[in-house]
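Recall the central idea of this unit: under ordinary conditions, the amino acid sequence of a chain determines the structure it adopts. In this exercise we apply that idea directly, starting from the sequence alone.
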Amino acid sequence: MNTKVKIAGVEWKNPVTTASGTFGSGLEYSQFVDLNKLGAVTTKGVSNVPWIGNPTPRIAETHSGMLNAIGLQNPGVDVFVKRDLPFLLDYDTKVIVNVCGKTTEDYCEVVERLADYDVDMLEINISCPNVKEGGIAFGQNCFAVENITKELKKRAKQPIIMKLSPNVTDITETAKAAEAAGADALSLINTLTGMKIDIHKRAFQFANKTGGLSGPAVKPIAVRMVYQAASAVKIPIIGMGGIMTGEDAIEFIMAGATAVALGTANFTNPTATQDVITGIEEYMKKYHVEDINDLIGCVK
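Accordingly, the structure predicted from this sequence is:
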């Protein structure tokens, strides 16, 4: 039984990774999960300089999910390459570094900094607000998606995965823009913009007013968007959004995802990634599937 998949020439032992921002750089979860068993570990967002994130409160539970307004808090690329990357390189798993920034130059700086390190892939979080364009996220404008992808491809030595925002009218347009600019793969979806109000205090739950909705509540939307994107582009897709079980993962794979990422599930079940890998294998045995690749995009 083969669970190996290949994305942009990089072979994973199985199609399961972590969603950025939900697993740190693996250190926090290594006491619960054998990182060697994961197809890849996707790190928390890494910026060119330290980010303090948004003011608190910035986390809230919702029905079948959660809202977060963390604001990509991280210690910056210098700390990452000295502290986190050496830890990850001790494991037999692929390393995907999530990159964030507030300008195209910010992203480029991180990508150039990582060029000579033993990193397998780079995931570019284009849901960040573009400060030079009035705060609209890079990923909400096709021209911006194409421009930043082209600039990063000029500098990157590793394959580039563009992480798409679902907060758009048509996900296929941004997917095609990224592909046209040379993206090696896509990941989707990022969180959906949501809001929660404390009716007792008559105030917003978050200091930031809005937050990103994730968890099982967004899964049907995520599956639909993965299907649409996979139908519109030829590059591989990493699907995410509310995956809790192996069956959830199989649904994304059948919709066209080559691999999947688990996010919110890690907060309620720290062994979720391993459980999903086991669940995929059990499904394959049950239905006599010899190769996971036979399931990719099998629903038309």
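The helical segments are 77-88, 104-114, 142-155, 171-180, 219-232, 246-255, 265-268, 272-286.
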